[in-house]
Amino acid sequence: MAEGGRQTSPCESCRMYQQEISLLRDKIYALETERGLNDTLPVEPGKKTEKTDTCNLKLNDTITFPKLNRQLGARPKQRQHARKNAPEIKLTNRFSPLSEGVYNKQKMSEKNKEHEVKTKMERNTVPSVKARDTLLLGDGAISNINNEIMTTVTYPSATVSDIIDVLNKEITNNPGINKLVLHVGAVDTRNGESEVLKEKFNKLFERLDCLDKDAIQIFISGPIPNIDGRINKFSRLFQLNTWLSKVCKSRGLTFIENFNLFWKRDDLFKGNGPHLSRGGVRRLTENLLHALQNPWRPEQQERAERSMRRAPGSPAKVSPASPIK
């Protein structure tokens, strides 16, 4: 080999490699001494290594160092083992598993029978819902009235004669009623035949006289005034309302006054009428229920008649309607 222009023999090259190896060992020892790892290698600085047979050393050989005895870095956390003397926790279940239980059809049938008998007894003790004991029968003005104690049956554009024809049928179809409310007559006023209308109402009253008044209490709901500005229509409805209140008083029937509640109340109608708005339906329903719970006495009817005798053209003089509870 040639190094610096000088020919070297193989033995000299081996000696040079050995010197470099010793220098590397000294450096490694110095580094381990600084870090406290001087016990890992047996080599000491300044100490010559024993001579070895240079003929057995080859350039392709590798030098291995012994493994370090100490571990570098943080130690991994070890799992904490359960305590040997820890008390045992007993787990219990108040429900028996299906696999362990024995299905007994006879016992199950007996329990079912007991449950059925118990439920039947409980149902009998619960008070029954109050049945609808009032029948409201009339024309389309009451079509939207729906109440839990009233059964509403309407015939749109029905006249007094139409109600007479269906009266017995509707009473038969609604057994158990003890109150009957009739709202009819406004459609007949369109013909302008007041005397003919009175004759029709007299026939209706005769039909009502045939009913058992001790079992069924009869109420006549008065007409609702118009708000479309037609004077003839208003006067006919006003005359019918006045006449019905007098006839009901003479025949012992309860008359329900609606005229004062809806007079000059545009907000209770849809547009110019005659159909009622939601507020109008609610107002009419409340007035009917109030009359059913508190039938008018004769002095109340006389007071209403005196108020209705005043001129309909001056609403300021009309007495206000009785408050609804």
Strands, helices and their partners?
Elements: E1 2-3, E2 6-7, H1 10-34, H2 105-125, E3 134-138, E4 150-154, H3 160-173, E5 179-183, H4 194-209, E6 217-221, H5 231-251, E7 254-256, H6 259-262, H7 278-293, H8 298-308
Parallel strand pairs: 3-4, 3-5, 5-6, 6-7
Antiparallel strand pairs: 1-2
Helix pairs in contact: 3-4, 5-8
Short description:
This protein is 39% helix and 8% strand. With 325 residues, it is α/β, with parallel strands linked by helices.
Features:
325 residues; two-stranded antiparallel ribbon; 5-stranded parallel sheet; 8 helices; OSK domain-containing protein; alpha/beta; disordered C terminus
Description:
- The strands form 2 sheets. This protein has a 5-stranded parallel beta sheet, with helices on both faces. The chain has a two-stranded antiparallel sheet with strand order 1-2.
- The chain is α/β, with parallel strands linked by helices and about 325 residues long.
- The protein contains 8 helices and 7 strands, in the order E-E-H-H-E-E-H-E-H-E-H-E-H-H-H.
- The model is unreliable at about 50-55, about 125-130 and about 315-325 (pLDDT under 50).
- Helix content is about 40%, strand content about 10%.
- Helix 3 runs parallel beside helix 4 (about 195-210) and helix 5 (about 230-250) runs antiparallel to helix 8.
- It has helices at about 10-35, 105-125, 160-175, 195-210, 230-250, 260, 280-295, 300-310; strands spanning about 1-5, 5, 135-140, 150-155, 180-185, 215-220, 255.
**What percent of residues adopt helix (DSSP H or I)?**
25-40%
- Widest sheet: strand order? 4-3-5-6-7
**How many strands?**
7
Over all CA atoms, what is the radius of gyration?
56 Å
Uncertain stretches: 48-55, 125-129, 313-325
Query: How many alpha or pi helices?
Result: 8
Shape: elongated
Share of residues in strands: 5-15%
From the N-terminal CA to the C-terminal CA, the straight-line distance is 129 Å
Overall structural class, as computed from helix and strand content, comes to: alpha/beta
Order of helices and strands: EEHHEEHEHEHEHHH
